Amino acid sequence: MLFGVGIAHSQERHTEICIDFRVNSTVIDSAYSDNAARMQEMVEFLRTIHQDSTINIIEVSLCGAASPEGSYQLNRKLAQGRLSALEKFIRSEVDIPDSLITYNDSYIPWDYLKSQIEDSGLIRKDEVIAILEEEARLVDYHHPNTHIDNRVVKLRALEGGKVWQQMNNLFFDRMRNACAVFVTYKKELPPVQVPIIVPDTIKVEPIVEAVEIVPDTTAIIETVIPEVEEWSRKLHLKTNAIGLGMAIANVAAEVDLAKHWSFALPVYYSAWDYFKSTIKFRTFALQPEFRYWLSEENDGFFAGPHFGLAYYNFAFDGDYRYQGHNRKTPAIGGGVSIGYRLPISKNNRWRVEFSLGAGVYSNHYDKFQNAPRTKDGLMIESIKKTYWGIDQAAVSFSYSFDLKKKGGKR
Question: What integer pLDDT is reported at residue 232 of this predicted model?
Fold first, then answer.
């Protein structure tokens, strides 16, 4: 009787699963994109491996990626944060030895972007591809101690920014992700040996050939964790050039509360006439404001609410003078403002800021005859009125100081 011989053999399989992230986020959001389906797919895949003793993981390759809008430092941190979030999720489902995990820290998938552009209808596509094929070189960014790829600068300049905007709409969402590639090794069990009856009565011993299964060797790359810079809280001292142009002394202090948030307190004061007693813009005003910045560095665009309080005594060389009721009733209200701030010195200490605000105020004021060489003209009437409109206009110059207290890591 002769037995057939089954030889054990193996199958190697590569499985890739990616998770998308929102702009400037390193948090896995199951409600974003089709993350819920991908996460379920990953969980089922990992549980299958855990339950099937014939399947072994021989390598897990992780990578995190970012779109190219921000600075090199920010994109590097976002990519590393996304990679870490995906790794934490995977390890919560299955125990994987550190020796099997490799990390890819390329940060921005330029090759992927180029391949997508080649197959697209992007305007000035050939020029964009030519720029992407240039040698990458870091140049100074407009934030302190930050840099940006010189190719990004050139791409942003094409068609006055229209090409960059189209690239953002078409490609950048798919570049903000983290991916895991699982290399698994499945050992197939030998088939059941079926006896074969041979006509003669000679008993033949089965010959079993032992085949040693050796998985492919995988180079293990040491995890590269980029150096994480600390966020520095700043104090800004500034003055509004428009106020100074109106002979109103003013100073403001602004302090960073956290990334994206700051608090500003401007003070305005004027106590003199403009060349003669019938022209004056006397005031004492405060306008504290909370600001939300689009950038983590608390620079660039901002918006926020403010509160306003102003004592005033106005005359414009006309027939009347206007003053807060009984000199003790200020205008009180508040509103919202928007603005933009940018550095104007090499060390980024000096900045210029443009802002405009609108609000609503409750006014109770007295109306007087505007008599020359007279301290108080005849009072005409007392008026209560609500003001709607512009309540802030500033072109401010500021100097910043680094405060000792440091914020959290990005």
Answer: 81
User: How many CB atoms are located within 10 Å of the residue 97 CB?
Assistant: 8
> Residue 168: what residue type?
N
Q: Which residues pair with 65 in a beta bridge?
A: 107
Q: How far apart are CA 369 and CA 383, in angstroms?
A: 14
Q: Is the pLDDT of residue 245 over 80?
A: yes
CATH 2.40.160 positions along the chain are 231-409
pTM of the model: 0.46
Q: What is the DSSP string of 277-301?
A: EEEEEEEEEE--EEEEESSTTS-EE
pLDDT exceeds cutoff 50 at 397: yes
Maximum alpha-carbon separation in the chain: 141
* CA–CA separation, 285 and 308 (whole Å): 7
Q: Using DSSP, state whether 402 is helix, strand or coil.
A: strand
User: CB–CB of 337/356 below 8 Å?
Assistant: yes
pLDDT at 410: 42
User: 281-301: per-residue pLDDT in tens?
Assistant: 999 999 999 999 998 889 999
Task: Give the right CATH number for 231-409 from 2.20.28, 1.10.3470, 1.10.8, 2.40.160.
Answer: 2.40.160
The predicted pLDDT at position 365 comes to: 94
Q: Which residues of 202-227 are buried (b: 16+ CB within 10 A; e: fewer)?
A: eeeeeeeeeeeeeeeeeeeeeeeeee
Comma-separated ranges of CATH 3.30.1330.60 domains in the chain:
2-187
CA distances from 5 to 54, 196, 213, 345 (A): 20, 11, 17, 81
Per CATH, the homologous superfamily of domain 2-187 is: OmpA-like domain (3.30.1330.60)
What pLDDT does residue 185 have? 81
Question: What is the residue-wise DSSP string for 79-99?
Answer: HHHHHHHHHHHHHHHS---GG
Split at pLDDT 50, 70, 90, the class of 195 is low
